[in-house]
Amino acid sequence: MFFQGKDYIRPSKKLRLLSVVQALTENERLSQTQLARFSRTSSAMVNQYLAELHREGMVQFAPVNRKSFAYRLTDKGQEARRNMMEQYCAEMVRGFASIKELVRRRLEPLAKRRDTPAIPNTPDAPNTPDAGEPAARHGLPPAPQRIAPQRIAPLRIALFGAAETGEVVLAALEGTPFEVTLVVDNDTTKHGTPFHGHTVQPPATLLAAPGQLAVDAVVVSSFAHQRAIQQQLLAMPGMPESAREVVVLL
C-alpha cells in the first residue's frame, strides 16, 4: 500500500509504524509475520514496534488463544494513525507536484520552438476594404478596423507509455498549451483498451503517412525504457528526420 523505494526514497521508522497501524485498522487479527510482510520489515522489528505502541497506549493486546493475540488500536492509536496518514499524504502530494513541474519544464522548449499557424476567431466586425464606406458617405472618417483576436492551436502530443507514469504526464499537461491526442504502447494486450479518455494504439499510428508524424511531438513516459523507445522510434520505417527534435525523454 505504501510507497517504499530502495535508493531515493528509503523507508523510515515512521513509515513502517504507519504501515503497521494501518494494517491493524484493516485487520486486527494479523500475525506479526503478516504485519512484517505488510510493512516490509522483520518480525522482530514488528515485535518492537508493537511493544512501543503498547507502552504508549496506542495498541491493546487481546489474547485469542495461548499462542496468539489480536492487536487493537485504541482511540489514541487511531488519532496517531490519522495524523501520520495526513503527513504521509502531504509528502506524496508534494512529490507528485514536483514530478508534474518536471514534465512541464521538459516540454517548454517545444512550446518555444513551435511554428503553429494561428487560427483566427470569428471577427467582431467586418475587416474588408469597404468597411468604412457607410461612415464616409455621411462625411465622417472611417471607423478604425478591428482585428479579431487570434488563438494559438494547442501543440498535439502523443504519449508513449500507457502506465502509471503516463497518468502523471496527463495530469501535468492539464491547463497547458499541450494536448494529448494519442496514446501508444508496445504492449499488444493494451491496444484498443481505454486509458484516461484515450484508446491505446500501436506505435505505428504515430505516422499519419510515411515521413509525416500524426502529432507535433512524442513524449516517452516510460522511465525504465526511455532510451530503447527513443531508438525504436527513430528507427521506425517512415519516421521523419525531424523526429529527433520532437521525441522528448523525461
TrEMBL record:
Which InterPro entries does this UniProt record tie to the protein? SAM-dependent_MTases_sf (IPR029063), WH-like_DNA-bd_sf (IPR036388), WH_DNA-bd_sf (IPR036390)
Identify the Pfam families for this entry: HTH_24
> Signal peptide span per the entry?
none
Q: Where is this region: Disordered?
A: 110-145
What is the protein name for this chain? Winged helix-turn-helix transcriptional regulator
Q: SUPFAM superfamilies from the entry?
A: S-adenosyl-L-methionine-dependent methyltransferases, Winged helix' DNA-binding domain
